[in-house]
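Q: What would this chain look like folded?
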Amino acid sequence: MVEERRQTASTSSEEMQSRRVCVAGRFLSGCCYDMWNLGVVLILLGVIVFSLVGLTDPDFWWHLRTGQLVYESGHVPHTDPFSFTAYGKPWISHEWIAELIIYLLVSTIGYLGTLLLFGIMFVSALWILYEYLGVLGTQPTIRLAVIALGSAGGMSFLTVRPRIFTILFFSIFLRKALDYWERRATSIWILPFLMLLWCNMHAGYIVGLAILFVLWLAEIARPLMMKEEGRWKKVGVVLFLTLAASMVTPHGIKGLIYPFTYLSGHNPSLRLIQEWQSPNFHGIYGIPLIICILISMGSALIWRKEDMFSFTLLAGVTAASLYSVRYMPLFCLTWVAVEGKWLAEQWPRKGKGPILMTRGQARRNCLTFVLVILMYGVLLTHLYHQGRLQTFDLPRTDGKAYYPAAAVDWLEENRPHARLFNLYRWGGYLIYRLWPENKVFIDGRADVYGSGFVMAYYDAVSARPGWESVLDKWRVDTVLIPPNMPLDSVLEMSPEWEKAFSTHHEVVWVHSAKGN
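A: My prediction, written as C-alpha cells:
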C-alpha cells in the first residue's frame, strides 16, 4: 500500500513537472510544444527580419502624405490634390483609414517601428492559418513545410502599404469560412463588422466577399455532394450584410464598383504597371509559387471530391495569382490552409493533445531559440553597419530603391514652382517632399490618370515620336529623370533644354525659354 502511494505520488509529481515544463516551453518558444513549432516561430521571425532590409515601396510616400492630409483636414479627399495633370479629377481614396494609421504610426514610432508592426500583422496572418492546421491535427513536419513555403512566396509583399491589411483580413475571413464549412464553428456573424473596417482600408476587401460567395454556393451544393443539409440561408444573410457593410465608405456605391475596374482591360494598372502583370518565373520569387502549384497538382489526385469549397477557393486564387503577381500573398495563405488540410487527411498526426516536453527538451528549445535570436541580432548589426537597414524616422533614399533627394533639395531652393515632368516611380516621393508647393506630373495612382495619359507618359519618357508634344501640352518647364534614359539623351541634343543639376542617379533639365 505504501509502495502504491509512493508510485502514485511519483507519477503525479512527474505529470506535474511535465505540465510545468510544457507551460514553460510554450512561453519560451512562442506558444510552441516542440522543435517543429519552434522552427515555425523562427521562420516567421526571419520574415520580419527580411522586411527590415527590403526595398521601400515607391507608393509608401504618397500613402503617408494622404494620411497626413486626412488627419489635418478632417475629411477624405474625393478628387486628386497632388498632380497638375489630373488635378480635380475624381479619386476613390479607398485606403484612407490605412493611410491615416500609417501617418500616425510613422509620426509617433518612426518608419522602422511601423515596418515592424506591419511585419507582425503579416506573420499573424500566417499564424492564424498555422493554428488552423494544428486544430486539424496536421503533422508538425507538414505544418512547418507549408508555412515555410507560404512565407517564402509572400514575404516580398511585406512593405508599409495598405495591402497588408487585406492580407490580415483575408486570413481571418478564410479561417472563419473554413471552420464554418467544416462544422467547427456555428457563427460567422462577425464578418460584416470586420468588413466595415476592411472596405475603408484597401480595395482588396472584394476577395472577402468572394470567399463568402463561394461558401454560399458550396452550402447550396452540399446536399448533393455530401448528403448533408446546407446552411446556405444563413450564409446568404451574412453575405448580404457583408455586402451592405462594404458600401459604408465615404464613396458609397462608387467604392464598391471601384475594385471591379481592375477586371477591365482599360485599367492602366493592368496594362502597364509591373506588379499587376503575371509572375516572372525566371526570378527567385517565382520559385515558391511553382513548387506550391506542383504540390497542389499532385494533391488533386487524392482530393476528397465532396470538399468543393476548399478546392474552388484554391483554384480561384491560383488562377488569380497566375494572372497578376498582386494576388500571390493571397494564394500563399489559401495554399497553406487548403494544402495543409489535404495533407492532414492523408497523413494525420498520431495521438491527440499537446506534445509534453521533458525538462531537457525544453532547455534545448529555449537554447535554440536564444541562439537564433542572437544570430538575427548579429545579422542585423552587420547589415546596419553596411548601411542596408532602414532608418528610424523615414526610409533610406539611397541604395537600390533610389529616390532623388539631392535633386529635390536643389528644386526647393532654385525652382519652387516648377511644372515638373517626373519618373513614374518617383512621383510618390516628390508628393511627400514638394506638395503642396509643387504638384507632380504622375505618381503611382495610375487609375486616376487613365490609360491614355499613362501611355502618353511612357511615350515621352521613352522619347518616342511625339514626345515634345506631351511636354508642350502640359507646359512642362522642368524634367527630373535618371540619367541615360532615352528622354535624357534627346534633351541633351536639344538646344531648348539645359542641364541644371545632375548626380550619378538623377538629372534635372530646364527649358531655356520656359524656365526663365
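The beta strands are 420-422, 478-481, 497-502, 507-511.
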